[in-house]
Amino acid sequence: MFLFQRKPTDPVTAETALPGRAEAIPTADTHFVLDRPLTRDVPPGMEVVIFGMGCFWGVERLFWQIEGVYLTMVGYAAGCTPNPTYNEVCSGMTHHNEVVRVVYDPLVVSFEALLKVFWEGHDPTQGMRQGNDVGTQYRSGIYYTTDAQKAAALASRDAFQPHLTAAGRDEISTEILPAPEFYFAEDYHQQYLAKNPGGYCGLGGTGVTCPIGTGVSSGSGAA
């Protein structure tokens, strides 16, 4: 998002990462678009998944617009530094990814439909970058919270790869892992593109259609 902050893409380790802090950094109290408390609490019947697709500003906007998505929030995950700041993540010394935590109603929107938005909303073949945004924080990732999500994510990856290959694209580099601890990003990052409609975000897909996702859940995606 900010060119001058891009760093090398070599991952750091727990021993070499920035130390972070014990306290969470301040963030917004309320979702600017959905007008709900911005909290880790999950209402009964809802499910959670975390996506990394590059610049989290544009990723969050993709998901808050979907019917059945109850709440979105941007933050940092899958790294080594506790409670990092944005500047620390951009330094390349935390190994955190810029992510969006999505809370959704599986009776309204299927997990497969969310996966379709994920695969088509960015280029999952670029490794530690998205377009001109370069760094470990821009890597592609699906961080699942149920075994059913894991199975669906792996199946969708395998279904999508032949279509990417036919279009001349490389192998998918998306990491598919159990959801790690999620750290909220700062207040100004939450729903950034709703607060700043002209804001830059280099998010872009491949133009290749992913052959999964039906929209309304049949209940098969619920744990």
UniProtKB/TrEMBL annotation:
User: What Pfam family is a match for this entry?
Assistant: PMSR
Task: Please list the residues that make up the active site.
Answer: 55
Record GO cellular component, one term = cytoplasm
User: What are the record keywords, sorted?
Assistant: Oxidoreductase
Catalysed reaction per UniProt? Answer: [thioredoxin]-disulfide + L-methionine + H2O = L-methionine (S)-S-oxide + [thioredoxin]-dithiol; L-methionyl-[protein] + [thioredoxin]-disulfide + H2O = L-methionyl-(S)-S-oxide-[protein] + [thioredoxin]-dithiol
Q: Which domain of life is it from?
A: Bacteria
Which GO molecular function, any one, fits this protein according to its record?
peptide-methionine (S)-S-oxide reductase activity
Q: What is its EC number?
A: 1.8.4.11
Q: What does this protein do?
A: Has an important function as a repair enzyme for proteins that have been inactivated by oxidation. Catalyzes the reversible oxidation-reduction of methionine sulfoxide in proteins to methionine.
Family per similarity comment: Belongs to the MsrA Met sulfoxide reductase family.
Q: What is the name of this protein?
A: Peptide methionine sulfoxide reductase MsrA
